[in-house]
Amino acid sequence: MTITTEKTAAGTGASLAVRAAARSPVRTAVSKRRRKIMNTLVAYSFIAPNFIGFAVFTLGPILFAFVLAFMRWDGSNPMEFAGLDNFWRLFSDRVFQAAFWNTIIFTGFVVPLTLICSLGLAILLNQKIFGRNFFRTVAFFPYVASLVAVAVVWNMIFNPEFGPVNMILYTLGVDPSNLPGWAADRHWAMVTVILFSVWKNMGYFMVIYLAGLQGISAELYEAADIDGATPWQKFWRITLPQLAPTTFFVSVMLTIQSFKVFDQIFMITQGGPGTSTLVLVYHIYNQAFISWDLGYSSMVALVLFLLVLAITIIQFRWSQRNEGDTA
Amino acid sequence: MAGISLRKLRKTYGELRVIHDIDLEIADKEFIILVGPSGCGKSTTLRMIAGLEEISGGDLVIGDTIVNDVPSKDRDIAMVFQNYALYPHMTVYKNMAFGLELRRHPREDIDRKVKDAAEVLDITHLLNRKPKALSGGQRQRVALGRAMVRSPEVFLLDEPLSNLDAKLRTAMRAEITKLHRRLDATFIYVTHDQVEAMTMADRIVVMKDGYIQQVDTPQVLYDEPANMFVAGFIGAPQMNFLDVIIRKTAGGFAAEYEGQLLPLPEHLARAVAGHEGRSCVLGLRPENFHERPPVDVDPALTAPVEMSVELAEPMGAEVHLNGKLGSHGIIARVSPRCRARTGDTVPLIADLSAAHLFDKETEIALRTGRPAH
């Protein structure tokens, strides 16, 4: 019954349009254009609330920071145009250089270590083992727990004098004079924040890897069983290539996240001792809100932005080259 | 030598038993097809033979060895999966070479075997492509090729044609049959399509609910089904079943169907002798209804019936009449010259020389000896 009604309505509409077209082709063209504009406006009105928020709170400040990078400004006095002065300052700023290399080192270790740990965890917790859900929750917990709380606990566990980690190392026979000073030691502080970051984030990326693993058809493993593959061969020749898109996503997210690390460092070492764990965002923070040198800090932020952009482009290129390998 | 024996083979999932102690002897180089509706256990049986499912009870013997605990890779089998299970990140060549590479065959040896198999299957031009860039039929060939290169004693095929379109399926049917002859290996093939089973198999295993119903050659299954399930499953359109009562007549025995006496042939009459008044099910295939008296059948074994047509399906070479014979729905297969339309009542001749008779309770076929033709 409904179908008949629709058909009739459509038929009437079509015949009206035909008649109108026959009467005045120009008028039809105009009304068609008007309808198209209306449709477009309606569509934009749907995304407007979100876009306005984005423009005011994200896009605007970003563009403002780009402008600020070429200004001198302390936040209260009027801005002055500085040209490339802020840029040249980067080359003489030893703290910036330390922060730059610290960020590279931090990222260089955190990305592969988190990848390996989260993939390892995902594979382990994808097996049918007893208490699987419990262990999945345990692994995910650091990610959801409050950073402040876990950082305090971490500092206690890794306390050089009273922490259980050093006590265990001592019991295992490590000489007391060789026990690592962890966050308090300029040689160990970076290791400490890297370990903390890996531990805090691996649960999240484990969940992403778990989803990736469950997307691999069980038939592929059965075919590999019949082809005679050992578990190790199955991992290298099937699991890993099949997870390539997941690994790409995880590595891009991790790289960006590591380049803009701040809170974890703030909670554990405050960038110290000395500049041993000072990273770019920490430097930006210090310059902007401790020294109130907003122009220079924006220039550092610009450098960080370009660095992340360059690396992400390289990652995308690399993944495009290997595209089609996994679908 | 790779005969396969299933001895009281059983599969249970917890309390649920899905394969009930089945026995089956598969001869070396035989093409055997497991057929049955969804959930009958045919795929599970195949997967137990493949080593992909644990065997819950009984023994699986390949050659002379019990292989219950032998891993798949050491059973000298190859398998073709329903969804092909090609490795998506490898080229066709790599897909086919993978098993040999894992077994550390020399490179030249692998290359020769892959290329030989590709030639047989006519996929040489696809060797550098990834599975994504292949059509369903091409993927099917690659899956067959991957199984072939290892020259196993036993090929296991799990509904390999079910994802192909009808035309391609018919073509691949013939190719797989040829491949079986060429490879000279044992083929165990699972399908739910009785046409595939009838056209390809040396012997067919009909399964239902985890039990084997009958094992025999396609023609014997068709002519002498062991029970109503097999009779209904094999043959398309399926066999017509009529509720009848056995009566003794002057000439022998007859089946009374809604007041009409249908004469029974000798081999059925002997089976029901002394059981006058017993309720049975009479089975007549659609081709046992004719518009004219058949010339090669004893007129004493035919009966005129009237069918009210509900739907006439022209198939080109024949017409399938769907309708009622008394209160039972039946299908008759008649010549394309038949002009019957919906609502018509057509007189037909039922040929009872090829009739089947089943016990109404047990559904087991009643017969002594073979049909006369």
TrEMBL record, chain B:
Keywords: ATP-binding, Nucleotide-binding, Transport. Transmembrane segments: none annotated. SUPFAM superfamilies: MOP-like, P-loop containing nucleoside triphosphate hydrolases. CDD domains: ABC_MalK_N. The keyword Nucleotide-binding applies. It holds the Pfam family OB_MalK. The keyword Cell wall biogenesis/degradation does not apply. One of its GO terms (molecular function) is ATP binding. PROSITE patterns: ABC_TRANSPORTER_1 (PS00211), ABC_TRANSPORTER_2 (PS50893). Residues 4-234 form the ABC transporter domain. SMART domains: AAA. InterPro entries: AAA+_ATPase (IPR003593), ABC_transporter-like_ATP-bd (IPR003439), ABC_transporter-like_CS (IPR017871), ABC_transpr_MalK-like (IPR015855), ABC_transpr_MalK/UgpC-like (IPR047641), Mo/tungstate-bd_C_term_dom (IPR008995), NA-bd_OB-fold (IPR012340), OB_MalK-like (IPR040582). It comes from the Bacteria. Belongs to the ABC transporter superfamily. This is Sn-glycerol-3-phosphate ABC transporter ATP-binding protein UgpC. The gene is ugpC.
